Amino acid sequence: MTSRDSLKQGVDYEYIPHTADVGITVRAATLAGIYERCALILFEMLFDFSGLSNEPVSVERLHINADDKEMLLVEFLNELLYLFFTKHFVASEAEVYYEGNALSAVLHGMLVPAGQFTVKEEIKAATYHELQVKQLSGGQFEAQVIFDV
């Protein structure tokens, strides 16, 4: 399980410059870790957690299948955007189980009432543009995702 507090910009992830969009490069020891970190970074980009308790009070479970690990990442992140914009759910912890081209995720977080938060970055969708999920020579995994804003 990865928690929001454990992520370090510059070590675990970096923002990458992109014209009119927002991009991230994420690193993790496992493929499941890539999905966990991407999820939590997405919520960091969307929502200002300052002043809120880090204690999760709500749980969301997701099961997603796709044709490959890259498509799975985009589908997963877009499902998280749906949870944010429809239920006002924000995750502070993520646990992902990856097998083949499927994942199951357990997300711990909170439901923030409408009107009681400000969206930091209006992200419309994760895109396939410049999408990469790969294993590096040292065994670590790296992903690059561009978000449409």
Write the layout of secondary structure elements.
Blueprint (H helix, E strand, L loop, with lengths): L1 E2 L9 E4 L4 E8 L2 H16 L11 E8 L3 H19 L1 E11 L2 E10 L13 E2 L5 E4 L5 E8 L1
Antiparallel strand pairs: 1-5, 2-3, 3-9, 4-6, 5-6, 7-9, 8-9
Question: Could you explain the architecture of this structure?
Answer:
- With 149 residues, the chain is an alpha+beta fold.
- The chain has a single domain (2-148), classed as Archease domain (Archease, Possible Chaperone, Chain: A, domain 1), CATH 3.55.10.
- It contains two helices and nine strands; from the N terminus they run βββαβαβββββ.
- The strands form two sheets. Strands 2, 3, 7, 8 and 9 form a five-stranded antiparallel beta sheet that branches.
- Strand 5 (89-99) and strand 6 (102-111) form a beta hairpin.
- Helix 1 runs parallel beside helix 2 (69-87).
Give a brief rundown of this model.
The chain is α+β, with helices and mostly antiparallel strands and 149 residues long. It has helices at 31-46, 69-87, and strands at residues 2-3, 13-16, 21-28, 58-65, 89-99, 102-111, 125-126, 132-135, 141-148.
Please name the defining characteristics of this protein.
alpha+beta, five-stranded antiparallel beta sheet, four-stranded antiparallel beta sheet
Tell me what portion of residues adopts beta-strand conformation. 35-45%
- Report the count of strand segments: 9
* CATH superfamily heading: Archease domain
Q: How many H/I helices? A: 2
Summarize the helix and strand pattern as letters.
Answer: EEEHEHEEEEE
What name does the CATH topology carry? Answer: Archease, Possible Chaperone, Chain: A, domain 1
Output mean pLDDT: 90
Helix percentage range? 10-25%
Going by CATH, the architecture would be: 3-Layer(bab) Sandwich
Uncertain segments are none
